[in-house]
Amino acid sequence: MLRWPLASSAPRLQASGPGRPSLPRTDHMHVSRVIPHQVQRRPHRNPRTPHKAPPRRQTAITARLDNVFPVRTMRMCSVHSRARTTWMNASSSQVLAAFLRRYPPAAPSRAHDHPREHLQLAFEHGFRILNSAPATDILLGAPPTSKFNSKCRYLWVIDQRGIPHIIEECLDVLDTSLPKHTNLTGGGNACMGGEMWFVSCSSLYVSGGSGRYPAADSKQLDAAIGVFESLGYDVTSLGWNDVTGFAQRHWEGELEHG
Predict the structure, then answer these.
(1) How far apart are CA 243 and CA 210, in angstroms?
(2) Is 100 helix (H, G, I), strand (E, B) or coil?
(3) Is the pTM of this model over 0.70?
(4) Distance CA 207, CA 89 (A)
(5) What's the burial of 242, exposed, middle or buried (CB within 10 Å: 0-12/13-18/19+)?
(6) Helices marked H in 128-186
(7) pLDDT in tens, 82-118
(8) How far is 241 from 217, CA to CA, in rounded Å?
(9) How far is Cα 171 from Cα 49, in angstroms, rounded to an integer?
(10) Are strands 234-237 and 203-207 parallel, antiparallel or unpaired?
(11) Region class of 88: left (phi > 0), else alpha (psi between -120 and 50), else beta
(12) Rounded to whole angstroms, how far apart are CA atoms 193 and 96?
């Protein structure tokens, strides 16, 4: 077994000139005979200061889901409580993505009566995708107070593009017929559809009335209202009819806007 020599037996530094110490010759001496603690190391020019981590805040983020999906609020509580992760002030793209995950796009529930009902309308026909409030290039109107009373009604659907919409008026490309919700998708898939009325540039009345892409229940209608609200609009829903099991198609009572 190899052993380190004693400190007294190790070679010592000898001066070879004024102020110039040098190690002795090691022709016949193995370098391991030099004891590490006898070699003086030059200190580092910029010694590192020990890293001090900032004090950890003993809190955790939890969230509370509002009654209207997916508008969310946030509060703080102790780390010992159980946390649920959601968003606060989520952007419109995040709200749309959450809606698409919860209600995946599906094919129209009704077969078309004429091939023109599956014609994809374009920008020159009035096709638009709803942007953030305030809206531009729109016609102001009001929701109907009866089944056959409507003015400046827009059709809308929700799909991967956002909220495509178009005003409901006769078009030459449709043989002077009114557009259908399938004209917004080209007969493709959509989460749901409905109708809306602009009472101002930032205020809307919205219904879930669509024969091609109807809402499954009141929760889906409320979730769709949340997608509109994420764009910055003040939205009033026409509501849900529990008797018929479908979305309300006309407004009952006095108008709250305009």
Answers:
(1) 17
(2) helix
(3) no
(4) 24
(5) exposed
(6) 182-185
(7) 222 233 346 899 999 999 999 999 999 988 778 899 9
(8) 10
(9) 75
(10) parallel
(11) beta
(12) 14
Is the CA virtual torsion 91, 86, 95, 140 positive or negative?
A: negative
Here the tokens at position 100 are 């698409």
Q: Quick one: tokens of 215?
A: 């809402």
Per-residue tokens: 48: 């590192």
Q: Any bridge partners for residue 14, and if so which?
A: 22
Neighbours of 180 (CB within 10 A): 27
**Token representation of residue 219:** 């929760």
Q: What are the boundaries of each domain within the chain?
A: 108-247
> How far apart are the C-alpha atoms of 126 and 105, rounded to whole Å?
23
Name which of 162, 183, 189, 187 is nearest 171 in CA terms: 183
Two tokens at 60? 């955790």
Q: What is the pLDDT of residues 174-186, one digit of tens each?
A: 998 999 999 999 9
